[in-house]
Structure formats: C-alpha cells, structure tokens
Amino acid sequence: MAELSTPPPVIDTSPLIFLTTANYLHLLQTLYPKVLVPQMVATEIEQYGEADPTFQAVQAVDWLIETEISSISKAVQDFNLDPGESAVLTWAKQHPGTEAILDDLAGRRCAKRLGIPVRGTLGLVLAAKQRGHLPAARPVIADLKQAGMYLSDRVIDQALALVGE
Predict the structure, then answer these.
(1) Which of 5, 83, 142, 148 is the most exposed place for a label (fewest CB within 10 A)?
(2) Strand order in the sheet with 100-101
(3) Residues with Cβ < 8 Å from 151, sequence gap 6 or more?
(4) Structural domains of the chain, ranges and CATH numbers in brackets
(5) pLDDT of residue 5
(6) Is the Cα torsion angle 7, 43, 74, 81 positive or negative in sign?
(7) pLDDT tens digits for 111-149?
(8) Which pTM was predicted?
(9) In Å, how far are 70, 107, 139, 153 from 119, measured between CA atoms?
(10) Is residue 43 packed enough to be buried (19+ CB in 10 Å), middle (13-18) or exposed (0-12)?
(11) Neighbour count for residue 106 (Cβ, 10 Å)
C-alpha cells in the first residue's frame, strides 16, 4: 500500500526571520523536505535588501520553494491580515491538508476558523525536540527570544512542559 504524502507546508515571513536570525533555519528542513514560500512573503523579505541575513539564507537553500498565488481568497480577505499572512493562508486553504507556519495571532485565528492546520515558530522547535532533532528546546527558545520573538514566560513554560523540560 502506498504511503499518503502530505503537501509541503507554507511559511510566513516572521518564522523565517526568527529562525534565520537565531541560526535555526535548518530546523525547518529537518522537519520538512520542502517548504513553500508565497511570492508575497519572498517580496517582503527582499524589501530588507540583499545584505539581510534572511534574504541571504532564503537565496542559499533549494528546499524553500517560491510559489505564486493568483489572488487572495475572499474568506481570508475578510480577516484583514497583512499580505504575507493572507498569501500563506490562501495557499493552505486552496491546498487542503497544507500546514500554515505563522506566528501572528490574527493569522492563527483565521487559520483555525477556516480549518487550516497551523504551527508557529515555537511549535517547530517543539516538533524538532520531539522528533529527536534537538537535544533540548529551552536554549533554542532563548535564542529565538534573543532574535526578537516575543513569548511570555507562561507560554514558554507550557511549551517546555509538553516536551518534558
């Protein structure tokens, strides 16, 4: 019997920035062989300029695949999200079973309302720890916070409890 393959996830700008800034972009590839980057997200990253570490990192790997979205779904438009999040959620809505990787709370609420599986940067770290790709999640989370990702102590404590830390 053939294995069912899941579609590659689609990622927003902020997880790419946090993972790159904290030097953990490779975690994405340990979890997924390919990750889709909507053209709108790529454009947001390009606006930081060629000297930007996220721009350079995205250009340097072949497993981040830029993808086109012709128009934003009406259901997603109703949430008034930024263009990158809207593109991520539109792709995921149009391709059932696609996981959306985004951190924005409004975007996550939209995903939940539309039945789109969603995971944030913190969820990526927890999955990497659970699958044995990281010896510990705590130092990675500390690095992500240092890179500018906001997480409350309560959220961090709850997350670490999920992976036995």
Answers:
(1) 5
(2) 64-67, 35-38, 10-11, 100-101, 118-119
(3) 122, 141, 144, 145, 159
(4) 10-162 (3.40.50.1010)
(5) 60
(6) positive
(7) 999 999 999 999 999 999 999 999 999 999 999 999 999
(8) 0.92
(9) 24, 11, 20, 19
(10) middle
(11) 13
> If we measure between CA atoms, which residue out of 150, 163, 65 comes closest to residue 103?
150
CA 164 to chain centre: 23
* DSSP assignments along the chain, one per residue: -PPPPPPPPEE-HHHHHHHHHTT-THHHHHH-S-EEEEHHHHHHHHTT-TTSHHHHHHHH-SSEEEE--SS--HHHHTT---HHHHHHHHHHHHSTTPPEE---HHHHHHHHHHT--EE-HHHHHHHHHHTTS-S-SHHHHHHHHHTT----HHHHHHHHHHTT-
Q: Which amino acid type is present at position 80?
A: N
Distance CA 16, CA 116 (A): 20
How far, CA to CA in Å, does 25 sit from each of 34, 77, 85, 161?
Answer: 12, 29, 19, 24
Q: Please, how many CA atoms are within 13 Å of residue 133, restricted to the half-sphere of its CB?
A: 16
